[in-house]
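Reposting from the mailing list since nobody answered there.

I have sequence plus structure tokens for a pair of proteins and want to know whether others read the tokens the same way I do. The first protein:
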Amino acid sequence: MKYEAVIGLEVHAELQTRSKMFCACPIVDAASSQPNSAVCPVCAGLPGVLPVVNKGAVELGLRVALALECQIAHTSLFARKNYFYPDLPKGYQISQYEYPLAQHGRLAIDTPGGEKIVRIRRVHLEEDTGKLTHVREQSGEDYSLVDLNRAGVPLLEIVSEPDLHSIEETRLYAKSLRTILRYAGASSGDMEKGAVRFEANVSLRLTGSQELGTRVEIKNLNSFRAMERAIAFEIDRQTERLERGELVDQETLGWSETDGCTYSQRSKEEAHDYRYFPEPDLPPLVVESEWLEQIKAELPELPREKQLRLQREYGLTTSVVKILSAERALANYFEQTVRASEGKVPVKTVANWISGELFAWLNQSGQSIEQIRVTPEALAGLIARSAVREINLKTAKTVLAQMLQTGQSAGEIIQAGGLQQVSDAKTISGLVKNTLNENAAQIENYLAGKTTLFEWFFGQAMRASRGAADPQVLREELERQLAALKR
């Protein structure tokens, strides 16, 4: 019996504002700040306080909603979502539900089967909760510590329709959405710091059926890997139950990364369980048409648009374009390098350097493109030196690594290391002659038919030049002198 997965994703993104959603408390880094150091009566939920909406958070939410082609609500309402958690001091969360900021959007993703449209049900604003730290003493005593620094941080929740039917589709959708959040400047997207978190609704149905099965919700998945593993586990678990003739319970699940399995947290709530009602302390949120048009006009070029333009203007392959457009800053760096090269270097060569050597450095070092010590102009200059054979390709890559580490210019590194490429025929002829004279035994083997030694001779001669010899000139001279020995 074949089953089809039906998956909807709820994405919570922390918005990049300076202050919290409903008060003036600053947003602080959880790792470096003292617990409960950015808390006021409003985010602590003390009686008699009045929340005030953060206009900056609304603007960031509108940017994302517009990027997702949503219908923006002229008037939206905040509501109280009632449930108790120790890290939710008010006993309710200020959120949006029935009248959200935006609805009915779409996000196109590229799958192995072609373009797929994932419908966006709604985009709404809310506040984050605090953070609990559970402690177990050696004595066996258990207790929890609460930090309210995160309570009240602006969140944007993006809810998809159940349009996803595989782990791969879900991963592509989640990554595309995170890229849009970063392009729009709405969220850092830093998943290690919890800036983006996923909740997956998963159910199974018979392949070909249009009837939805019983769904479960997997909460607080804070990485792509966790999301994929949790969904995969849940698909397998539900398949086994259905094949045994058992029912799937509608419930809220947690995910244990250590054990690699989901676990039950509580029965799944419906909207009425939260007793939503309009927040009495906040007036309706009205988005004026002029303001909305201004935000729309200031939207940057979005990832999909950028990919298509880079392919059209520069003739780059899809795989290279996807790397270059993964981050807005990286795409800008590429185009700045192209302009700095002033047509002296093929655009594809620039793209290959950035998607190859530079991208490898970013992955290895953990730095962002904004943090590296090589400007687009400096990189263009290095590539140009390689193109005119002032230095060879291998040396150029070595020089780039030193530039990234030290911030020095290519010229300084080349001059200090004597790395200029040697193309002089007489000098290279001497290098080859010395190499052959010093390896008489290998010459005999070569002349006896072991022609694979050619590359070994080439490597020895290149090493003797400290990598500075022009590879093409060196290869041609080596071929000439070895041929002469055969006569």
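The second protein, same order (residues first, tokens after):
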Amino acid sequence: MKIAIAAGSKDPSGEVSPISGRAEYYLIFEQGKLVKTLANPFKIGGGGAGPSVVQMLHNEGVQKIISGKFGEKMIEAMEEKGIKHVVLTGKSVEEAAKEGEE
């Protein structure tokens, strides 16, 4: 399963971002291993960041997104694409990746 985790940096030992649509980065894990790091092109700009991020991650084959918080429009977009989501705070990105696999 491909899992994308909202992060404030490229460092997998950093904390899960408290925001999703405007998170700095998304770190993508598969079977517990970091396979890709994406800078979020939607972190700055007008409305619609959440659904745009969901489309970007869907294009990467992501099946679950983990973040500290999700907006209503982002949740709707994930549901439309069949992507699961988990709210998780106070954990490192690496820890979140392990928990996300369970």
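Reply #1 (J.P.):
I read it the same way you do. The longest strand covers residues 33-39.
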